[in-house]
Amino acid sequence: MQLLFLLLCFKTFGGIPFKEDTQFSVLQIIHGEGYPPRKQRVFVDDKKMRLELLEGEKENIMIYRSDLGVIYSLMPNRKLCFVIPYSQELKEKDPITSNTLNNITPEGTETLNEIVCDKFDVVGSFGKAFLWISKENRSPIRLSSEDGKNVVDWINYQKGPQPPELFEPPKGYQIIDMSKNIPKKSTSSAPPNLSH
């Protein structure tokens, strides 16, 4: 069993509940100590993931395309799409397909929000946590840090293929290629001659 759980999972953008499910959608609510809850809609189809932040006046959409090595950052209110190449870190630790859980230990059965769940003690790159999985349909329900200060709840987890247009820049958007604005490392060791 694998789980996307980068730092951004508990911070801003969330992640993928299960690697074994490669096609699904879910409403994700992230609770962090000292932060208001963040709601997101998550759509995953193989090496593509769309995250829609569902709060505030500004709509924020991030589309991760591991198959292309880019992120589309959408600003719907301005009809802008920023194309951002994967950083070296993202290339080495793909946000969609990485992070394996280790030491998965059953902890018994608990009921969360009237859903009977199997509870597991898990360890991953994020440390130790607890995971609850619905006994009825085996979908993820909650992931909590060991101290309970950071919690991700998953609601209405639906397995199945996602519409391809969810993972493309919408028609009519201005495309801004950020790879052209990334400074390149100089190949020479001497500083440039600035004299005129």
Chart the SSEs and their pairings.
Blueprint: H1 7-10, E1 23-32, E2 38-45, E3 48-53, E4 60-65, E5 70-75, E6 80-85, H2 88-92, E7 102-112, E8 115-124, E9 127-134, E10 140-145, E11 150-159, E12 174-177
Parallel strand pairs: 6-12
Antiparallel strand pairs: 1-2, 1-11, 2-3, 3-4, 4-5, 5-6, 7-8, 8-9, 9-10, 10-11
> Any idea what the shape is?
globular
Cα separation of the termini: 62 Å
Helical segment count: 2
Largest sheet: 12 strands, mixed
Q: Would you list the SSEs in sequence order as H and E?
A: HEEEEEEHEEEEEE
Proportion in β-strands: over 45%
Largest beta sheet: strand ordering: 7-8-9-10-11-1-2-3-4-5-6-12
Count of beta strands: 12
- Give the overall pLDDT as a whole number: 80
Low-confidence stretches: 1-15, 183-196
Task: Please state the CA-atom Rg, rounded to the nearest Å.
Answer: 19 Å
Q: Helical residue percent?
A: under 10%
Structural class: mainly beta
> What kind of oligomer do you see?
single chain
